[in-house]
Amino acid sequence: MAHKKAAGAAKNLRDSQPKYRGIKLFGGQKAVAWNIIIRQNGSKYECGANTYLASDFSIHAATDWIVMFKQKNFKRFDGRTYLKTVVYVAPEAEVKVEKKAPAKKVAPKTEAKKEEKVEAKEEVKEEVKKAEVKVEKKAPAKKPAAKKTTTAKPAAKKAPAKKEKKAE
Question: Are 20 and 39 in contact (CB under 8 A)?
Answer without folding.
Answer: yes
